[in-house]
Queue: 3 jobs
Job 1
Amino acid sequence: MKRLFTILILLPALTACRDNDRKYDASGRFEATELIISSEANGKVMELWAEEGVKVDSGSVLGYIDTIQLSLQKRRLLVGNQAVRARRADVSKQIAVLKQQVTNLEVERERAQKLVKADAGNRKTLEDIEAQIHTLQRQIEAQRSALESGNLSADKEGAAIEIQVAQTEDLIRKSIIVAPISGTISVKYVNRGEFRGVGQPLLKMADMDNLILRAYVSAKDLSGIKVGDEVALYTGFDEETIKEYKGVISWISQEAEFTPKNIQSRDQRSNLVYAVKISVKNDGYIKMGMYGDVKFKKSNQ
């Protein structure tokens, strides 16, 4: 009887100690950085290897959208560009014949000049040779100008085609579905064989390795914390599964707000609270939406 009486006396004290151990400074829910991968191309989803719950690395190829028409368009452009480049003329070769004629006439002119100087030749013949040389030189310049103009036009047309090729290649690249970050596929909006247009969602990813606990504290507690402070976090599905984590305060709101209905603040009499974000490394146990409790290292208790 005496032993039972002692236990009954100690029980309230033990319960009080246990309640005190569970006294937290703030509570909140865990969030993850999420992003939606949207389609950057129009077409049928040919392959989509990503599955919900699977972790992928940044840069991983998750699937691709039909690129047959784009590939054919690129081939057509490349063939067209080859045809345009083939139109370019070799200016030196094109005017080589005329230049050789000028060279031959210059030899004849030199011979005629010697004959005229020795009064053994006809000056009219010399003048005719010089006129022919002048005519050929004008033809050479005109042909050179025309050929260079044609080459310039071909170069411009070829450059325009190369831009179209680059644009087509960009569309082909955008048809490949790539993970922009390392994370976990949380939602799959489309399946293989379905059509998607530019801007429509394909997948949702979440960075589950680095989570945020969004908690709410009263003005009284706010005065004792600052960005960069380490805190203790507690979370679990029940009393038997509670785990402790180390977190760091990464953000404190500058404006007060009313306590969210699904969050319990330490001081229930405080209607206005401040949102606080606490960064925590996840070992795989914490899930988005789970509740977490916080103990500040320097608490205003």
Job 2
Amino acid sequence: MAAALVLAAAGIGAQLSDRGESKPGMPRGYVCERAVRPPVIDGLLDDPAWQAAPWTEHFVDIEGYVRPLPPFATRAKMLWDDRFFYVGAWLEEPQVWATLSQRDSVIFQDNDFEVFCDPDGDNHNYYEIEINALNTVWDLRLAKPYRDGGPALNEWEIPGLRSVVHVDGTLNDPSDVDRGWSVEMAIPWAALAEFAGRPVPPRHGDQWRMNFSRVEWRTEVAAGHYGKLAGRREDNWVWSPQGVVDMHRPEKWGIVQFSTAAPGEARLRQDPTLPARDLLTSVYYAQRSFREQHRRWARTLEELGWTPPDPAPGESLRLETTPEGWQASTIASATAPPVRVWIRQDSRTWVSD
């Protein structure tokens, strides 16, 4: 069964400036420039390649601007070439500590820095890399977000991953005050290509959905050692705010646009399908709420009881049942020619002619 509804997809969703700045609630963006020469992976971020790369905005609370700004600064940089995607980050931290030293440990039990990457922006088959101040790495792939059943594939590894951490101060020493720690990663394109669903390395102008997160635990010192404050959850500070305490909502991640232009010349393009994607994501969450209440999916938009924001003539939203559940679609008219954007019950999103 299907139902049609009139809406204005072109007026809904995130808008970005050409520098990647965003308004509250909208994804941040970054133009990732091609490195003239590879950066030196030593954890310092001080060589000419990194000096030429712009910083991201300072990280904010994962819930966004409704929460206080983090007390310690965090920023990141990105570069790329034919072999690697490079990530550098600086984490201000007066007390640098880490305990986990075995690869693929649950690194966010320490303070950490995390990379999330969904190359084709379909919400499925995305990558996650976590690293602590001991340079211990947890790399994994998720077939689907946890909300849709996952699972996390911990056996997935990144052959050739290079990472270095530099501590500006001392590690695991509560007797002094540190400045912070920095991270450098060189992530081989060969590893990301496996489930990218698009050309790798990227082409000029390609946009990937990505985000960065920092987990920060409040601690106290006892007998010369750090310990987590009892009853206190971790803080989560991110590049592009998620709106909720959940990094595994890929539709909320930021936008990274790859460029082969001279440094500073490329401008961030707005994704003309974003308004349609945002609209369909709203349908997805409405369906989840309906199923929790009725133990089945809604068969029509009328039954769902969902009304799109700012309805206006010109675009049709359709909801239809499938053997697996349901799928919904709408036209993204800002593209040339217009395309239809889809979402289904497990949040996978895609585009068709």
Job 3
Amino acid sequence: MKKYLLVFFIIVSVLGFKTVDRPITIFIAGDSTAQTYNEEKDGLIKGWGQMLPLLFSDNVKVVNHAMGGRSTKTFISEGRWDRLLSEVKAGDYVFIQFGHNDASTRPDRHASYDDYRKNLVRMVEDVKAKGGNPVLLTSVVMRTFRDGSLIDDRLKGYPVITRRIAKEYDVPMIDINLKTRDFVTMLGDEDSKPYYRWVEPGIDHAKPEGLKDDTHMMEKGAKQIACFVAEGIKELNLQGLSEYVRLNND
């Protein structure tokens, strides 16, 4: 009888441990538009990655590896990709968003279209090999108006390549470039400025002289992009994530 009781308690214990599920983790690989900032040091600039946890319940953890000035080339060459990948466990998600610095004319950052494609494909395949779930995101639109119309020609073909890879490799994609383009177009030139890092002199201690930045976001803009990401998660019905998204209209 003691033997059967022992076996019973062992089975119960094992089953009990199995029912304790760890939170699904979202890892973010990206650039300054997604980065987490320290307001004391960096001022009022914010990245959408640091706002994303506000849109989930406790069942989802966000680990933000995004870093300013990084392209797919430098994110890999500096070892940042390998460090991120070493933390990924089966079932986790890796959100990958690059393009701004790949399109840069700076030789240390620039990645050609061919290299950008190869780097993104490598990232996708690396995540899948770990049992994780890659999700591609196109770049945040750069707020450039000409004659009253939004003209974002600085990102060139990089968002197009991202879309093609998503289709070819059957990878979920959130088209942040399209979502932000539509949003900024709807707002227009003047009303879109408060979302980006347009600050008057004396407002931001990190830029006391003021700033007109059409690439990076203030808190208002970073929150809006995080909402677009969360909406994209729900639209894609990403397993283990979409059910925990908390938007205002939920």
